[in-house]
Amino acid sequence: MAVKSVVLGLVLVALGVIVSIASSSDSVTSYIPSFIGALFVALGVVGALKPDLNHHMMHGAAMLALLAILGSLGSLIGRSSTGWALFSQLVTVVLCGGFIFLAVQSFKQARLARQAAEAAA
Questions:
Q1: Overall pTM > 0.85
Q2: What is the mean pLDDT of residues 89-108?
Q3: In whole angstroms, what is the distance from residue 69 CA to residue 119 CA?
Q4: What was the pLDDT predicted at 62?
Q5: Which of 29, 34, 56, 96 is the most buried (most CB within 10 A)?
Q6: Dihedral in degrees, nearest 10, Cα atoms 74, 92, 109, 43
């Protein structure tokens, strides 16, 4: 999951930069996906470099994905976004939703593997 966190982070960084350039936005808010992406990259890198902390980092990444979804949906609904802002928010929701799905699957597999190891011991 650490690699997936880094990949998601890089995609979100690119999304923020591309949308900001394409929309000719002077607002720092158009870079919000990039800021979120940088956090995903950091969590993924720490998880990869420190295997004993990986599960904590990936739980943090899953929580970050949930917060990104809630924030994007809240802004989408609250401001009735259009254009590039709408695109950016929808892509963030879809990408982070996919990450949460993968994270839950990974957490389930890890728990089953741990239970199998305990049963064998």
A1: yes
A2: 96
A3: 38
A4: 97
A5: 96
A6: -100
Q: Which residues contact 9 (CB under 8 A, 6 or more apart)?
A: 36, 37, 38, 39, 40, 41, 42, 43, 44
> Given pLDDT bands bounded at 50, 70 and 90, which one contains residue 117?
confident
**Can you tell me the mean pLDDT for 31-52?**
97
Per-residue pLDDT at 46 exceeds 90: yes
Helix (H) / strand (E) containing 107: helix 83-120
- Look-up: residue for tokens 């890198």? 45
**Cβ(10)–Cβ(41) under 8 Å?**
yes
- Kindly tell me if the per-residue pLDDT of 121 is higher than 90: no
| 3-class secondary structure, 7 | helix
Q: How far apart are CA 66 and CA 19, in angstroms?
A: 22
Supply the DSSP symbol for 24: T
Rg, the chain, Cα only: 16
